[in-house]
Amino acid sequence: MVPWWGLILGVLPFFAGCTTLTHKNIVNTIVTEPAPGAADAKSANFSLIGRASVKGGKESFSGGVQWRHAEGEDEILLLSPLGQTLVQIRRNSDGVYLTTSEQEDYYAADVESLTERVLGWRLPLTGLQYWVQGMNSPATASAIDVAMDGRVVAIRQDGWEIDYSSYFPPPPVQTMQTQTLPEQAVRPKSLLLKRSGLQIKLVIDAWNPGNH
Question: Which DSSP symbol is given to 58?
């Protein structure tokens, strides 16, 4: 399979060049309750490329990830370190479809149960579509730790703890000669999801690469 935006993912150290955030930076914890009508809420559209590492499940994974999220649809590619597609996950209104590199096809009503059955670990896509953008899902209760600069340090929701270790740096001051990329100013660069011994580390190399 050819990745949708045709970028070649480099194999780089996981946290190279990241500015580290720690829980010492926490100045406030915000507790939220489900918002009215949150069951029908949809997160903002995005696409990203990055690297993922999964430990603590029945199986492990380490390699590239490409994710395109649009209203009601997701396409996720899990790649080998050399950029070969190992798994394609497609979610739409009909359910979730997973195809392996051996062209084996699987189906389920939700991503979590499908990935646990086929891959040996749960991918919490329902919450992750929000968490990857540095925000909580409005559908369930959560606790959000906020740093002095207003950035989210951690989110605890649906039994998961999401720790944010770095964000993309602010863009340079915009001038007539400089075009900034505002989507990188507030979006996370690296985060770690933890639940019952399972750890999913995600490092994002580029947001919305097809728009650059």
Answer: S
Cα separation, 32 vs 146, whole angstroms: 13
Helix (H) or strand (E) holding 111: helix 111-119
Where do the structural domains in the chain lie, given as residue ranges?
23-172+184-205
With respect to CATH, is domain 23-172+184-205 assigned 2.50.20.10? yes
**Which sign does the torsion angle of CA 167, 168, 169, 175 carry?**
negative
203, two tokens: 């490092």
Per-residue pLDDT reduced to its tens digit, 110-148:
999 999 999 999 999 999 999 999 999 999 999 999 998
Interacting residues of 82 by C-beta distance below 8 A, sequence separation 6+: 11
Q: What is the pTM of this model?
A: 0.82
